[in-house]
Structures are given as C-alpha cells and as structure tokens.
Amino acid sequence: MDSQELLNQLADIRLPGEIGLWPPALGWWILLAILLVALYGVLTAYLKRRALQYSLNAALGELSSSFDNWRSAAPESKTNATLEYVNTSNTILRRVALANATHKESIASLTGEAWIAFIRSEGDSRMLSEEIALALSQGRFQQSLNIDTEALRSFCASWITSMYITNKHNKNPLENSSIKNPRNQ
User: Fold this and answer.
1) Long-range contacts of 58-61 (CB under 8 A, 24+ apart)
2) DSSP E strands: which ranges in 53-183?
C-alpha cells in the first residue's frame, strides 16, 4: 500500500464542540454563593436599619404630637395639659426603653429614682436636669407641675434617639462620656 492510499483511509480530525456557558465552572458557583451571602447581609442590615428608623420616627412623632397638644391647650387648662404632656412623655420613654434596653426584665416596674437612674444609665442623659428628673419620677402624682416643656421635649427626643441609634452600636453609651453611670456608683 502506498502512502497516499493510507492517508486517504484516515478520517479527518474532529474538533471538539465549542465550550458553552453552561454549566459554569466551580469558581463561578463559589462567586455566586459569596455574592448571595453578601446580598443577604446587606438586605438584612438595610431592613433592620429601616425598622429602627421607622420606630424612631414613630416615637418622635408621638412625642411631637403630644407637645403640639400641650401647646394648643387653652390657657385655663394648661396645668392639666402640662401634667398630661409629662405623663405622655414618660409613657413614650418607657415604651422606647422596653423596646431597646439591654436588660428589659424590670423596666416596667421601675418608678421614682430607680426610673431616673435607669434613664441615666441607658441613654444619652446629658440634657436631664433635676427639674425634668423630678417631673418624670413624680409628675403623675402631682396636682400641678411647673416645668420647661421645651426642655422636656428636647431631652426626650435626645434620649429616644440615643436609644435607637447609640445603643444599637455601643452597648454602653456612657463609657465615653463625662456622665457617671449610676450602676457604678
């Protein structure tokens, strides 16, 4: 047999088919898994932040509404409106504390000085004056109350904000401030 005849008997070389996009290589599956985990983490963080922002806005809105009710009260009923404003503010603070405090077991039963000590220990209480502390601890038992309602509103807004923002990132916001923690005294 001659070499030409032998060459004619050979079949043509078959090239493999083109490499398709499916199924992807192992590295792509790993990358997809990492991206899904990252997306889940980002989405979870976003939803938590959104829920906190919603709760914060609801508490501040309720406080603002209560302040507007006090401001629009008739002059002859200002005493009762002030007492109602102090009690409503105290209720809002207590609800925020129950939702965000680090130790919730005994919050509902706190009264008087223990309630004020809790307020000082958990949130930003730099604006808590003795007048506000007295109103929050004993205001609901008074027949009349003379208090700077604007200062009370500012304190409550600051404390509520600190409970929703500061406490979520720093469990003890008093660590880095000049305020003394009543638990350590």
Assistant:
1) 59/92, 59/95, 59/96, 59/160, 59/164, 60/157, 60/160, 60/161
2) none
- Classify residue 24 by its DSSP letter: P
Per-residue pLDDT at 167: 57
The number of residues making up the chain comes to 185
Q: In which element (H, E) is residue 157 found?
A: helix 149-164
Q: With contact defined as beta carbons under 8 Å apart, do 151 and 136 qualify? A: no
Burial of 25 per CB tally in 10 Å (0-12, 13-18, 19+)? exposed
Q: Token match 């102090």: residue?
A: 86
Give CA–CA dist 89/87, Å, rounded: 5
**Domain range list for the chain:** 28-184
pLDDT beyond 90 at 44: yes
CA distance 78 to 2: 121
pTM of the model: 0.71
Q: How far is CA 3 from the centre of its chain?
A: 86
The pLDDT of residue 88 is: 94
Contact 157, 116 (CB under 8 A): no
Per the listing, tokens 């000590």 go with: 117
